[in-house]
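sry for the spam today, last one i promise. struct tokens for design, 383 residues
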């Protein structure tokens, strides 16, 4: 406790230097949370989105990116679609009980980018068991549209109102109940309406199987069939794994950028502690001369460094939350998304706080080593 008390006193003794060290840690932790909240949010939203579907096997063009999040996914960078002949052939595959061609695209609607999905209204309950429409109904004809509750709230849309997409006016026939997933930011129309708006067919095909436990086997059988040579079939587990692989690339990129700030913070903490140590060699020598052990001095230096880094870490969490919101808005604007991505979790906050402690610990290593090896007489002679 004596070591901690003396460490706290020294923190307030050199306020300017302490503040600069805290700022360095603050910026590192804030950047860590802000950047990784995007990858963390994307991972969680993709997982929740797929868990909310009852799709056993996905079939997409071979060069498509398996990302189920609107304009970032579907066919990824591919513009290929799945012809009706392929859809019909998939319906004849053994163990397949239901085939649903799905169209997913983005259009400008009333000054805002809107993500639209198209599948047959009779199959909503088959693939979205948690999607219920207590206000209105699912679209049945070309001029009808169903809107997600989050999008309706943000755009001020209501049942029996209208929404214009690509110069085509739709009547809002339903607003479904909140699901907590990405669906809440999407619109749904009929496949015929989607073909009329885009001039293209489905971008992927969803399959339901009679024996759901054999999804991996069914996907492999489809991939081996030369009829589907230009397409790729994946079970729900494989689809999620492939999507997470792309997200991991984004996570690594964001972590690399955040690591630069972390290294700077470690350097700043170590520099502060080194300067403090050299200035106080006489003080340390006096403490040793009156009976303080080497470990007492080492604990004091370590405590001081951890106090500075912990304060910076706590303030960095606040900065990270604010930075995450700003970065999320920038990503939504850049990629023209209609839904937020960033997600700050307890796990991410704890990782950031642990990071600040590591920064403080690393910053104290060299100063502790110097003081531990210090000769008492040499310390007393320092000015």
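last one done:
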């Amino acid at each position: 406790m004596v070591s901690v008390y003396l460490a706290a006193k020294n923190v307030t003794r050199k306020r300017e230097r302490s503040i600069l060290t805290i700022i360095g840690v603050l910026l590192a932790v804030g950047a860590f949370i802000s950047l990784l909240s995007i990858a963390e949010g994307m991972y969680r939203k993709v997982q929740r989105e797929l868990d909310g579907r009852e799709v056993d096997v996905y079939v997409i063009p071979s060069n498509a990116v398996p990302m189920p999040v609107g304009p970032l996914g579907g066919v990824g960078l591919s513009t290929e679609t799945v012809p009706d002949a392929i859809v019909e052939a998939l319906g004849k595959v053994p163990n397949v009980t239901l085939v649903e061609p799905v169209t997913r695209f983005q259009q400008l609607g009333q000054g805002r980018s809107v993500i639209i999905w198209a599948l047959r209204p009779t199959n909503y309950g088959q693939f979205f068991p948690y999607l219920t429409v207590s206000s209105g109904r699912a679209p049945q004809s070309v001029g009808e549209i169903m809107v997600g509750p989050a999008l309706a709230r943000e755009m001020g849309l209501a049942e029996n109102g209208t929404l214009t997409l690509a110069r085509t006016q739709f009547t809002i026939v339903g607003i479904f109940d909140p699901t907590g997933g990405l669906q809440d930011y999407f619109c749904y129309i009929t496949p015929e309406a989607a073909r009329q708006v885009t001039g293209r067919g489905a971008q992927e095909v969803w399959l339901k199987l009679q024996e759901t436990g054999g999804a991996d086997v069914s996907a492999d059988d489809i991939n081996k069939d030369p009829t589907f040579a230009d397409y790729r079939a994946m079970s729900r587990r494989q689809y999620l794994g492939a999507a997470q692989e792309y997200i991991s690339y984004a996570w690594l990129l964001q972590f690399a950028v955040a690591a630069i700030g972390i290294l700077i913070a470690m350097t700043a903490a170590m520099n502060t502690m080194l300067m403090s140590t050299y200035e106080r060699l006489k003080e340390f020598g006096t403490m040793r001369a009156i009976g303080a052990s080497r470990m007492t001095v080492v604990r004091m230096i370590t405590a001081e460094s951890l106090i500075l880094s912990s304060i910076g870490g706590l303030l960095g969490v606040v900065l990270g939350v604010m930075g995450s919101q700003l970065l999320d808005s920038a990503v939504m604007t850049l990629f023209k998304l209609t839904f937020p991505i960033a997600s700050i979790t307890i796990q991410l906050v704890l990782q950031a706080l642990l990071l600040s402690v590591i920064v403080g610990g690393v910053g104290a290593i060299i100063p502790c080593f110097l003081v531990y090896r210090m000769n008492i007489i040499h310390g007393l002679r320092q000015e």
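The chain has two domains: 2-46+245-381, 81-229. ok im logging off now
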